[in-house]
Amino acid sequence: MSDVSTERFINRELSWLDFNRRVLEEAEDETNPLLERLKFLCIVSSNWDEFFEVRVAGLKAQVEGGMIRPGPDGRRPAETLAEVSRRMHELVRVQYGIWRGSIRPALVREKIEVCRLSELVPEQRAWIDRYYSEQVASVLTPLGIDSAHPFPQLLNKSLNVLVSIEGDPAEASETRLAVVQVPRILSRLVRLPRWEGRRQYVFLEEVIFRHLDTLFPGNVILGHWCFRVTRNSELYIDEESAASMIKAVEKELFNRRKGAAVRLEVDQSCPAALRQQLMGYLKLGDPDVYSIEGPIDPVPLMAVYGDDHPAELKDQPFVAPVAEALQGRDDFFQVLKERDVLLHHPYETFSSVIEFIEQAADDPGVLAIKQTLYRSGSDDRIFAALTRAARQGKQVTVIVELKARFDEDNNIKNARLLEEEGIHVLYGMVGYKIHSKMCLVVRREDDRIRRYIHLSTGNYNRTTARIYTDIGLLTAREDLGEDVASLFNLLTGICQFQPTKKLLVAPFSLHREMLALVSAEAENATRGVPARIIAKMNALVDPELIRALYDASRAGVEIRLLVRGVCCLRPGVPGMSERIEVRSIVGRFLEHTRIFYFENACRPKVYLGSADWMPRNFFNRIETVFPIEDGVLRDRIIHEILSLSLADNKKGRILNPDSTYRRAIAEPDALCDSQEGFMKRSLDRERQSRQPVSGNSMASMKVRRSPPSEFSGS
Fold first, then answer.
1. In b/e form, how buried is each residue of 324-336, taking b as 16+ CB within 10 angstroms?
2. Catalytic residues, which ones?
3. Which of 48, 82, 389, 596 has the fewest CB atoms within 10 Å, counting from its CB?
4. Is 70 exceeded by the pLDDT of residue 198?
């Protein structure tokens, strides 16, 4: 069987579209609270924007460049692009069908209305008129299109109004066109004062439609239609020749706004002739045009989600407790001398990570703090702690990855703020993104130096830590501390990579080590020794690892994969992958944890890390994968986190050999939602920790193990 074959590999781009179809299913699912369904609808639109800006743009560039070499799945770029277009048009129809036929009517029943102006009463239209004159009129700029005014350079993802204006009959002139950009500086969704107990909203473009005659006085408006252009937004940075990385990234961020057009979204009612004119201006073809029956770019509807509505329209709020090991303990350093601490977010509070950094900043024994920031957000507490540490004379080093896609501008701002406070800031390595998540604290204790570290599968971002599932490790293990210190020296200095004792580090050893771990399981299976692989990640793309998993399956290894998004492995194929099962969990929280379990002849090895199994993670990024060697924590990951995730038959979908997904079949009283289970267990632990300690209560606090058949030999 040829390696280059649709029989062995699923197309990466099509797998990504399948993932977003699963997200759309959550918007369709009427068992979800209404506003959560709306949220999923918006998430899909945001995902598709990035997909067009990067992946579709890349495919178009390959086609235009004459590339005909097929990918691992056997499709050439042109074939993939054509199939992506076909599926995307269908998905867009499904998405807007859900909005028009299900979510919007359900909102109306709850007295939450996204209205057209024609649906408002005169008093409300008068309010809209005042809003326009006071807030909107002064920031609008009509742009005519004629021989003296070429078609404007429209910003990426900006919403625009195409206006058709009647020509002057006295001059027998043709119909003229103009463009009005919907200003980004104003809220796209205008909230009206409450009316008869209803919460009502109007899109800003509707407000502009009503007053177009004031922008084109003396003309007759024949029609108006919204449209939106998506552009190639990949950054193209020559790092070798860039004198300043920060300036190079800033320059490319400016260029991103005017990259080549890759998608045109336009009101369905726009006449075909005008649509053709837009396509000509933007150099796009029919497959690139999406006719929209509804609001173009629904993402601003998240304002409805965030507004004040009845609590039952959302998921019940969840306040993550402090991890059991840290409850009632104020001194992180003392705790970590005694034991490692595992933090499972968002089920255990991310504030513990921030408090660890804050304690390090204020502790007089701490000499240095070193930290990586990939998607840092704007967490004032972390920045304030690092600033305090620097002001106290501690050595503070922060590595900010400027090329974190679509967070570049935010990271530049944060880096400059830190530099202004005297913190030593570095901007990654030439040729690699620094995707590793780690913090190192160096402390003097009784005439010796001890290292405390935090390693994680997710970012130092308090906002995403509430909605992404991730695991972090706090430890004072000397071997891990030495590895982390050595890696920071590599990132900040000029030296060669030194072999590590415990860490698996990309691009130096991670790919080789993962292949070796998979191969070892295959060898164990051939010898009749218990062999099993369980891996949880965001994406599985790397062809070599997929081939290794196929070989392991043929050798007799039982393989269970939890892959949230893109999965290019084809499971359940006789003679190739019949021992492999793939599940994807799409639920309330974004599954982001990376866990890798290897049976290892009844001596389980468990790793956590920042890397998915993708070529970019193995060869183009600095990634860290770290072992969990504390037996209690390892058992918790195996028998609680992985076991419950694999049992999810409510939000989990199973990948079929033909690349489609199906929901697991279960009786209503046997449904298992892993995320709900983790929240319940977390709160149960918190309640138990408040009870008086007794023999029975201590027994009840032990990690519940799965049946032996679930993890034979471990």
1. bbbeeeeebbebb
2. 435
3. 82
4. yes
